[in-house]
Here is the input.
Amino acid sequence: MSIIIDGKQTSAVVRKEYAEEIKELAKKGIVPGLAVIIVGDDAASAIYVRNKGIACQQVGIYSEIIELPKETTQDELINRIKVLNERKDIDGILVQVPLPKHIDPKAVVASISPAKDVDAFSEVNVGKIMIGNHYFLPCTPAGIIELLKRYNIEICGKDCVVIGRSDIVGKPMAMLLMHENGTVTICHSKTRNLADITRRADILVVAMKKPRYVKADMVKEGAVVIDVGMNRDAEGKLCGDVDFDEVSKVASYITPVPGGVGPMTITMLLKNTITAAKRNHGIE
Ligand code: GUN
Here is the structure.
């Protein structure tokens, strides 16, 4: 039976540390500020955004949630971002994706000042991550690295397999594992003989958006399995991309869904907002 990596509990510990740091910043008159923009009425996005606001409040970050109607034009959205770029009380800006179809997410991300791009989605920030000189780390991959470190799981020299090549998770995850000296393989929807590759993994990160796709016979005995999936099964129950009941019998460590990677993603957003505030005030 594997050890369950408890993202909820770890998040609570890490958030307490951040709350302490924010108290210290407050003594210097600094209150980190985050603006979260949501366009339209996507139900899942609304929940994510609400949770981000609650998390900010928990640790003492000022947050402003800007809800815009789905008819908002790209220019209107970019103009809102330009105002936020100039505001001294806002250190981080995040535009929740997905956006309505008539808005180009690349153009929107490009309009966010790289110094306030706490998602680390902009070309400048992605480039900086690539060369190991990051300004911010993308929240989900950074949360996974933090979980591995907090559970004393060594990455150096390990065979790491990432399933998924998205800009938000798969690609930056591979990069961060490589920066930690893992030997990294990226698999995706066109990969042949997927199970042959995943069975080699010491650390397997799964971000493929397929409910319970990864079964026990795809996992090496003793592997560390990180499940980024967040799906609803046929009964409407939340589940990951990994068949937890099966895989937890062979893995040494495994993240559950919910309560694994998800809470750490928001925690890393808090971290990036604190980092932005410190930099904007010349502390770091
Ligand atoms: N939608 C789903 N995950 C994310 C995220 O990490 N950042 C933003 N901006 N939108 C998301």
